[in-house]
Amino acid sequence: MKKDTHPQYYSQATVRCGCGKVVTIPSTVQAMEVEICSQCHPFYTGAKRIVDSAGRVERFKARLKKTEQLKKSAKKHPV
Hints:
alpha+beta; three-stranded mixed sheet; 23% strand
């Protein structure tokens, strides 16, 4: 068998969540950072929370608002 084909295995790897929770698990990566865990995930907590790091939700809301304004102005001035 070839030597050094498998990655290093850490039995006490740490996972840090954005909410502050720290979990110790076995992994091939010694330390990880995640945005959402079971303590803060909306499915488990029942709280609505929008996770958007790229601003997509705001852009969608802006487009929606602009479309509604165009519809209102089209009703006032029929062609």
